[in-house]
Design a protein that fits this description.
Blueprint lengths: L1 H24 L2 H17 L7 H21 L3 H19 L8 H26 L7 H8 L12 H6 L3 H14 L1
Helix pairs in contact: 1-3, 2-3, 2-4, 3-4, 4-5
Length: 179
Amino acid sequence: MAILRKLARPLLASPFVTGGLRTLRRPEAVAERARPVAGPIAERIPALAGDPVTLVRVTGAVQAGAGLLLATGRAPRLAALTLAATLVPSTVAGHAFWTMEDPQERARHRAAFLKDLALVGGLLIAAADTHGKPSLAYRSRHALDHAHPLRAVSGPVAAAATGTAARAKAAAQPLVGKL
């Protein structure tokens, strides 16, 4: 599986690196399509001030940087999440096929929209990839089972030793009747 990751990550990252670098060099080519998204994003991030060229440049830089991180395997989960987060508004702004009148143009943008959705799916899978190791949630849930040596032992003594007096009392009830 490791060889598969080493091959798949650069393949998944390649459109983001090339697209991000192209956008950094010529942001004006994409800025007009980003105008509908620039306003709502500027409300949340005042530093962008509703300027589509700045927004496109920042998005291009983030995509190129996160794409390189994903391709090289450095912080791949964070890089994949970052790419997915930047791809959603880019896709909605750049491929709004539902607004197109020309059937050929609509079909072209629908295909690009669906391709971007597929990329988001791949990025989400990459973000969830734990390299075959248990996830952090799994490890934290099961850490308690191994935190105390008496936890694996059953009965009233173990329950009392692990600090659960209610379980100790419940476990001792059958013993009280026999004494």
